[in-house]
Amino acid sequence: MREPSDRELDFVYGHINQLHLQGQFQVTNEILKSLDIKKVPPTLLISYLTIARHGRSKISEYNNFFNRVKSYFEEIGWTDPGLLSGLE
User: Fold this and answer.
1) d(Cα 52, Cα 28) in Å, to the nearest integer?
2) Residue 83: is its pLDDT beyond 90?
3) How far apart are CA 20 and CA 54, in angstroms?
4) Distances (CA, A) of 3 to 44, 68, 82, 86
5) What are all long-range contacts of 62-68, with beta carbons under 8 Å and residues at least 24 apart?
6) pLDDT for the residue 54
7) To the nearest 5 percent, what fractions of the chain are helix, strand and coil?
8) For the CA atoms of 7, 9, 12, 18, what is the dihedral angle to 10 degrees?
9) pLDDT tens-digit readout, 33-47
10) Where are the domains of the chain?
């Protein structure tokens, strides 16, 4: 799977950050719920987790998304213990 471009990473961070600044955590919730994690590059999944983490208390899907990503990473052999550290 290809790595995301800087533009894609900037879009994720910028878009999610803007949603949170506007208090639209439900939109982030729906984005996380709808992502097909097997079609998203792993580094982009980490980006989603990173930017959504600070609003996780307002994003009911966050923990489920984290667990889906963690399971997927185990499935593809991305098992470095520090990879998702601090994102749970």
Assistant:
1) 7
2) no
3) 9
4) 8, 20, 20, 22
5) 62/29, 62/32, 64/32, 64/33, 65/32, 65/33, 65/35, 68/37
6) 87
7) 65, 0, 35
8) -80
9) 999 999 999 999 999
10) 6-76
What DSSP character marks residue 19? Answer: H
Give the pLDDT confidence of 42-72 residue by residue, as tens digits.
Answer: 999 999 999 999 899 999 999 999 999 999 9
* pLDDT above 90 for 79: no
Residue 80 has which token pair? Answer: 């470095």
- 87 CB-contact burial (10 Å; exposed 0-12 / middle 13-18 / buried 19+): middle
* Spatial separation of the C-alpha atoms in residues 15 and 20, rounded to whole Å: 9
User: CA end-to-end span of the chain, whole Å?
Assistant: 24
